[in-house]
Specification:
With 194 residues, the chain is mainly beta. 13% of the residues lie in helices and 53% in strands. β7 and β8 form a beta hairpin.
């Protein structure tokens, strides 16, 4: 009789733990942006005859992956606009001025996801992209997502490319002539968790 009573109590405890979100309801895995193995780069046309290449050197972010319910996954990225680097100090300083990124007034470029859905080989992530004080909704196709365990650190990587028009973000139209309106942005992001 005592054995049956203990079994009943244990059964109720396990059931309550599961409903409360215990181990059977696994939470999403959270990864931090690994600046050593990630990059945010771009290129834009110059006089419509060549490409100017550059990158942002200060980027941070985090993403959570819910493998059981991908719609609950989240992605966030913050770029410090004044970390722009085109391998030319004079040009970089000009790009920080009000007729381009205006980094004093708009110090960061940000992306915050609002919906996530799985696709073959990755995720389709829609969210708010804010640059130069203007926010537009964009959709990123992130390819990747397999977890790799290296030296007891779990890593997941994604890559994406997108095309943006500076005129959609309030850049000075007078500066759009020499440098093309469209910028191609390439993001390779590796996330880590202990």
């Amino acid at each position: 009789m005592r054995h049956h009573f203990l079994t009943l109590v244990l059964g109720l405890l396990v059931g309550t733990w599961s409903v409360a979100g215990g181990p059977s309801a696994r939470a999403a895995d959270v990864y931090d942006y690994d600046g050593v193995h990630s990059s945010v780069s771009f290129k834009a046309r110059h006089l419509d005859i060549s490409w100017i290449h550059g990158r942002f050197n200060e980027v941070s972010g985090t993403f959570s992956l819910d493998r059981q319910d991908p719609s609950k996954s989240t992605f966030a990225l913050t770029i410090k606009a004044d970390s722009i680097d085109t391998a030319n100090k004079a040009r970089d300083e000009h790009l920080r001025q009000p007729d381009y990124f205006d980094t004093k007034q708009f110090p960061t470029i940000e992306f915050r996801s609002t919906s996530v859905k799985p696709i073959d080989g990755g995720y389709e992530v829609t969210g708010d992209f804010t640059m130069h004080g203007t926010t537009n909704q964009i959709t990123l196709v992130l390819m990747g997502g397999k977890e790799h365990d290296f030296k007891k650190v779990k890593r997941v990587a994604f890559s994406t490319e997108l095309s943006l028009k500076r005129s959609d973000y309030g850049f000075d139209a007078r500066a759009i002539g020499p440098i093309g309106d469209t910028a191609l942005i390439m993001i390779d992001c590796e996330g880590v968790r202990e």
